[in-house]
Write a structure and sequence with these properties.
- This protein is an alpha/beta fold and about 350 residues long.
- It has 2 domains: about 230 residues, Rossmann fold (3-Layer(aba) Sandwich); about 90 residues, Rossmann fold.
- The strands form 2 sheets. Strands 1-2-10-7-8-9 form a 6-stranded mixed sheet, sandwiched between helices. A 4-stranded parallel sheet has the order 5-4-3-6, sandwiched between helices.
- β3, α6 and β4 form a beta-alpha-beta unit.
- The radius of gyration is 18 Å and the shape is globular.
């Protein structure tokens, strides 16, 4: 592993019980072997009509068809199955607005260990229900990063559980990188790879994989305009940690982590923005043209391509459709917003 960057105070708690260092490509290869018995090798989807609209050749890595409905299971599974038996027996703990919590709960269930998930009070109901259904113990907190971290620290003290941070844990980053490993291994070289950007676990893992497997491939992050801390961080050359996200993309409201920022800078990743209206239109378009239901946090990657057609014209573009856990009760209103 490479040397980790200095952590800000906001990251120090998350780092306290995690292995140090940034993951390398060897960690992603190890993760792929470790999680192979547990994860789905998801398909790559195509749509000629979307190619015409986008002006480029799109290849969709369908991680919304992954177990528990999101790529997050890869990283959580790698973290859980990396643990020594004595550590695993004390269980795992995390904080999550939804998908990572459900992923960790499911991963813990595959190993038969306890799982505690700290959930903000404003989390999407369908995602909270999934966390509960996969067997985790739920612990509610105020909808702030500080409240999440405080609750996690308390649970660690009380239970001895291992912290598995949603995006800064190197075991999680390595696991997320296996989605790009599959995509590049199955479908050959790409001019561009694009993933959504929230905390940076998926994008960081993708950047590491692309640099090793297909170094000519450019890697982009797709970020909501209302949660543009990643974009601002790369523009300024220093990590923005004070922004309050305001976006329909609930899975992308976490701020870019310090190690994730270091990976994106190391691999010259560029971040592009799309507003929520464009993202909801892209979500609706994916349903209309491919019959695939993805959540807004996933559709933002398609919105970015459509909003920046000139950047990708005529190129071969791989997109990770990161998740499909949509609250069914909100579906009609989301599609209606996408039609406006």
């Amino acid at each position: 592993m490479n040397t980790a960057p200095d952590l800000t105070p906001a990251d120090s708690l998350a780092a306290a019980s995690m292995p140090s260092g940034l993951p390398g490509f060897e960690d992603i290869l190890a993760a792929a072997a470790r999680i192979a018995p547990h994860v789905h090798h998801t398909p790559v989807l195509h749509s000629q009509s979307l190619d015409v609209l986008a002006g480029c050749e799109l290849h969709f890595k369908a991680e919304h068809l992954q177990r528990m409905g999101a790529f997050k299971f890869r990283g959580a599974c790698n973290a859980v199955w990396s643990l020594p038996d004595a550590t695993a027996g004390r269980g795992v703990v995390t904080h999550s607005s939804g998908n990572h919590g459900a992923a960790l709960a499911l991963a813990a269930r595959t190993r038969g260990i306890p799982c505690h998930v700290v959930v903000p009070e404003n989390a999407v109901a369908a995602k909270v229900a999934a966390i509960r259904d996969f067997g985790a113990s739920l612990h509610y907190c105020a909808p702030t990063i500080a409240a999440r971290e405080s609750a996690c620290a308390r649970l660690q003290r009380e239970t001895g559980a291992e912290l598995v941070h949603p995006y800064t844990d190197p075991r999680v980053i390595a696991g997320q990188g296996t989605a790009a490993l599959e995509l590049l291994g199955n479908d050959g070289g790409f001019d561009v790879l694009i993933t959504p950007l929230g905390g940076g676990g998926l994008l960081g893992g993708t950047a590491i994989t692309a640099a090793a497997v297909s170094p000519k491939t450019r890697v982009f992050g797709a970020e909501p305009a209302g949660a543009a801390d990643g974009f601002q961080s790369l523009q300024r050359g220093e990590r923005v940690s004070e922004l309050v996200p305001d976006t329909i993309c609930d899975g992308l409201r976490g701020l870019l982590g310090a190690p994730n920022f270091a990976i994106l800078r190391q691999h010259n990743v560029e971040v592009l923005l799309a507003d929520d209206t464009a993202t909801l239109q892209a979500m609706r378009l994916l349903w209309q043209r491919t019959k695939q239901l993805v959540e807004p946090s996933s559709a933002v990657a398609v919105a970015v391509v459509l909003a920046h057609r000139e950047r990708f014209a005529g190129q071969r573009v791989g997109i990770v459709l990161s998740g499909g856990n949509v609250d069914i009760d909100m579906l009609a209103s989301l599609f209606a917003a996408g039609a406006s």
